[in-house]
Amino acid sequence: MRRKEIILDKNKPLNSNTTTSNNSFKKILSRSLESFSHKNYLILWLSKLFLMFGVQMQMLARGYLTYDLTENPGLVGIVIGGSAVPMMIFSLFGGVLSDRINKKILIQVGQISSTFIAIAVAILIINEMIMWQHLFIAASLQGVGWAFLAPSRQTIIPQILPHRLISNGIALDGALMGVTSLLAPAVAGILYGLIGPGGVYVSISVITSFSVITTVFIKYSDSNDSPRIENDQIDSKPFTGSRLNLYFIKFKEILFDIKVGLIYTKSNKIVSTLLILALTYVVLVMPFRFLLPVVIREVYFKESEALGLLLSMIGVGSLLSSISIAVMGPRKRGFLQFFGIFIAGCILVLVSLFPYYVVGLILMVFLGVGEAARMVLANALLLENCDKNFQGRVMSLRMLIFGLQPIGTLPSGFAMDYFGPRKVVAFLGLVMMILTIFFAFKSKKLLSMD
Description:
Layout: H1 2-32, H2 39-70, H3 73-80, H4 84-100, H5 103-126, H6 132-155, H7 157-160, H8 166-215, H9 243-267, H10 269-284, H11 286-290, H12 292-298, H13 305-328, H14 333-353, H15 357-384, H16 391-402, H17 405-419, H18 421-442, H19 444-447
Helix pairs in contact: 1-13, 2-3, 2-8, 3-6, 4-6, 4-9, 4-16, 5-6, 5-8, 6-16, 8-13, 8-15, 10-15, 10-16, 10-18, 13-15, 14-15, 14-18, 17-18
């Protein structure tokens, strides 16, 4: 009997440690997924999962189909970039509407338009009427829809989650983007080979329709939708009864709201610094992403199949970074924002110093980590440090900045042709590192922010 008690006593610490370890893991998992305990957020997340899976599939299918129709790489670039200009033109208007009317309505309008665009393209393909011009129009219309959808999708998060979970919710949103960027293109590529482009677009329309259906179940009503700011110059003349005059007055109100949003952004030092950082990243680091085919050929001396693996490694890093931010919660986010951007600049320099494909694969994981940290933390800090009545307009400025990618890509491409990709990539990375340090010292409040 005594012997049995001794054996049991000896085993107690092991059981205790195991239980403690299991409990710790459960606590970490529970903390990282805490936003999912809020039903509205879970539904929003699932609806975006369906939407982004369809959008990512569509991007790949659109490029493949354009090349099949034209065998012209230049036209592929034009079609793929067809959404950029509409996003730049309409994003500020989308931000104003996000601050004015129910965000759920804007989200649904964007999702329904995306579904019908996919259906229209599928019908054209099945009836053998498709041309590359149709695909360009589809991309442009999708850019218009996205300009109104995206600000509302971001700014609805603080309204369906408590303030302490905003960072967690946006991190889980970033993890979703990482998952879809990894899986959706692979699924689209397989389906394209098995059932052709028509079948792929039918699949896309079905998937995106699930996002519309799912969003219906979000129980949400805007308590704010921002109080109107009166402008003495607006409505200075009595309404004559002309419908055209009424539309003109409403348009002036929207322009006035855009102006007020720009003034507010300039006056908010945290918000303006985050947007300037985003702009420098788009101009200096994003061109590397778009010019990776050049790097593959002239630095790593590989063919096009090697590009897919590099992009997958970026996706892996993004996913790991988003999950880590979700687990950590709101800690040292200002520092991590700057650190993520600095890491991205370092990676570009290292790519130029070590022109080996295997090394490049490892570096792309860290580039994904830095990129996701920048994006997720910037979104969280922007929303938390922005007045509720201006969140839509601030996030629309972020989208406008994203649409400015050609500003960095075009000169970088020409510079690579003249100086070579390694020198240009090193220069871009070095400038990014220097500017990150400059802004970190310039905005110590943001640097120290949790």
